[in-house]
Amino acid sequence: MEEIFKAVIYGIIQGATEFIPISSSAHLRVFPALMGWEDEGAAFTAVIQLGTLIATLIYFKGDIANLTKGFLAAYKKRDFLSNPESRIFILIAIGTIPIIIAGLAFKKFITGEARGLYVISASLIVLAVFLFVAEKISLKEKDIKDISIKDGLIIGIAQALALIPGSSRSGVTITAGLFCGLKRDVTARYSFLLSIPAIALSGLYQLYDERHAILEENFLEIIVATLVSGIVGYLSIDFLIKYLKKNSNLIFIIYRIILGLIIIILLQAGKLTNLDPRDVAARKPVNKHFVYFHK
Predict the structure, then answer these.
(1) pTM of the model
(2) End-to-end Cα distance, the chain
(3) Residue 284 has what pLDDT?
(4) Cα distances (angstroms) measured from residue 123 to each of 22, 102, 151, 288
């Protein structure tokens, strides 16, 4: 029962923090350490993040269908940019390229030194400051059909910053969207649509990379964590989009700063170690579930 309980907790953390801009990497790194739990490892997380991917596909099935139809219609006319749906479809594809390149180019750094808790705490606080500035200066008037090629490229490039643990993929893309003048709920929606290929590629890569280790996992634990992450992920998407229609990101900004400061205080007090002891002992990253696009 203890393992099932842990699976439920991991599923909740994965599902909630994947989409809310408070950083899944920070919570998945810190919470088990505070509880004294062993790291479940890359194989476990590679599977359960598919729960959040499925949640995204289900929630945005209408948007995905419309974007695909728009692209196919534009393809027949060879006019891809005048059609808003086709333009967004292409921008999502192009916007995924920077995070793929950065993930492959900086894999060693991201899975090693960048996972230090000082890096994570700094990322939490710095991104919170940028998000605060974006909230203050953004015009917040563009709808999703108004997203330009320039906007899409800026948000796509920003998504690559999510490779830095603690930054939050949704956090950096929402921040970039606000700087581009998008409405809060619109930038959240576009952020989630942009996450689909990134999360899918990350999950499939890690599934392949960890295929042997997955066979040794407790499948009941994996199934429970995946189902929970999917359900919580769906609710998190719905919550954030509805919340940002009427509210700012201030609550998440404050939370990020407080969490970042708490991590620093615990590090200074010796309650947490900067790097996972097993990472240090092995001189190589053990937990690769912060790699690539999952932030």
Answers:
(1) 0.88
(2) 29
(3) 45
(4) 10, 17, 23, 18
